[in-house]
Amino acid sequence: MSIKKIKQKAGFPPAKNHPSEATQGLSIRSESFQGPLPHPRTLAEYEQVYPGAAARILSLTESEAEHRRSLERDSFQAEANANKEALHLYFADSKRGQLCAVAISVSLALIGAYVSLHGAPWPGGLLGTAGVGGVVTTLIRGRWATSPPTVTDNARSAEPRPVTDDRTPNLPG
Length: 173
What we know:
By secondary structure, the protein is mainly alpha-helical. The chain contains four helices and no strands. It starts with a helix and ends in a 29-residue tail after the last helix.
């Protein structure tokens, strides 16, 4: 659409053929500002309308930022505490499972020895081998079968994240 048609639709009277008409144009200026505070010009206008408003806005922004940081700090601390508790429960459960496996394996070895000494060497040997094999299997598989759990922002996650000893938050992504 030409400038001539735009002027006609806007209600401007028809222009005379003038050499400068060909060089006329339309200029649009756009400005944006983004941040926790209003644009400095806007802040100055607030100060003109209400003296002390700029200081109040700065104070509110600072207190909101401190509040947000304290919430993030508390969230990180809660996640760290939850990870410690999850690891404690994991290792307690793992230790209990190892003790049960050792008890079963030793019982099978003792029963195998008893059966072998009382006239059935093949069944006793199989029970004893199962007992010793159970201890070995438990020790090998127990070490590499699973990794310790971690707690994420959503209480539990399908993707475990590594537990770190440093003070940086362990954020997803």
